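Entry 14. Two folds queued back to back today. First construct below, sequence then structure tokens.
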Amino acid sequence: MFKKNKISKTQVNKSVNLPISNIPVCSNESKMINHRNCVPDGTPLSVASFQPNAKPFITSSSFIPTSSTLSCSLYMENLSVKIWELYSSTRQSPLKYEKKVRLLNALHMVVSGVFENAGLYIVGSSINGFGSNQSDMDMCLLVTSRDLHQKSEATFILSRLLQSLRKCRKF
């Protein structure tokens, strides 16, 4: 069974200051990088000031940016921009997704002709937002709610589907 974790009052208090030593930082000794914020060890950050996509408010007035912290921050910002540009230029278009859904629906018609209550679902990058116009489409076929013996039953199911697909003029 699961153990119930006790939460202390300081964990509940939203304005508690956390030491940076628990958070990855930029340094010559460590390869761990705190995205967008490279601050010295020990500088507290305010949890209450956290907002998504925003730089945390540094509560210590002793923080003075150095060339290493600035270069790390610029590197991470540049890397983030390059990753976004790559994703934006290669992501799956709505038209490509519509084609995949039409294929899924056509295949489901064939599958339901063989296995009446079967489900066919898009899984993987095509559905989770990381698909590209060049990516394939992963599908999950569900013909029963019980576990199948993969070597015998799954082979039988797929061979029955193959027979139906060969008869279909669309494929």
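Second construct, same run, same settings:
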Amino acid sequence: CRKKSTQVPSTDSTETNTYTVKYGNIEARTEITGEVQPKTIVSQKSRVSGKVVKFYVDENDTVNMGDIIADIEPDYNQANTLFNTKAALQRAELSLEQARKDFTDKSRLKEMEYISEEEYDKAADALQEAEIMYAQASRQYDMIRDLDVPGTVIHMYATTSGTVIERNVNEGEMVSSSLNTYGEGTVIMQIADLNHMIVSSNINEVDIVKFKVGQTGSIKLDALPYEEFEGRIDKISPKAVTINSAKVFPVEISINARGDKVMPGMTAEISILGDSRENVLIIPIGAVFADDKNQDIVYLKDSSGASSAEKKESTMPPTALVS
């Protein structure tokens, strides 16, 4: 809605436009722009550092969780870590077996009173320590157990189902492990669920009060100008972010379209329904003025159709809608 004019119009009939007041329906809408995105995007990272020797999927391919998506040849340090971790588990297992056997023997000897209580306690302590060491080695090995496969390469598996929307490296390139404490690891590819799409938008802080979760609206895409989709505000960020020196609130709007029709990155024009009235008197915004007391007023033609206009105070509440 436009701001009401404070200028009093001329009462000259040659300069005054007229409008017949009538009943009807009216809506207040807010127009925003956004970008189509998958609701869920999962980055795929290797758990070992090394060289990508083979890809099994490429961009636009569909994958299921657990599918092999790449082969990684571990670098020397990574391969050495795998070997040492497995060897440590084997040593811990042997030590545990020996400690159990020794404790069993010491238990029999204690019952026969052939050894002292002190010797028995030492065997019990040794068994407890061996159990702790084995548990620690086992946990460390469990972290990389699925990587310990025969041969010189490690299979990389998809951690979700969906469509490969981006592949960031090529065969022969080196990647870093996601298990490194000093880095987040290389994102090898991204997999998205294109069956559930959203429109992502950023609303300026001065306009955010106009929006709330659950509001509906219509969506048009630049790539599909003759089609209209339905949308609904699903999420409004509780915290503003700064983009190009402006404070904005990220907003997610669902769209009733799948990835076989719309694609990530498409530009969207969204018309959000803010408020509406049915069967009310409709007055053009250009016919509503404010006097020197800031009172809303309108000018009415008399019943004879004379050119002179009659000033009437309007009784519209502050939140009234005008077209």
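Quick look at the second one. The chain has three domains: 1-21+283-323, 31-40+193-274, 42-189. Residues 76-111 form the longest helix (36 residues).
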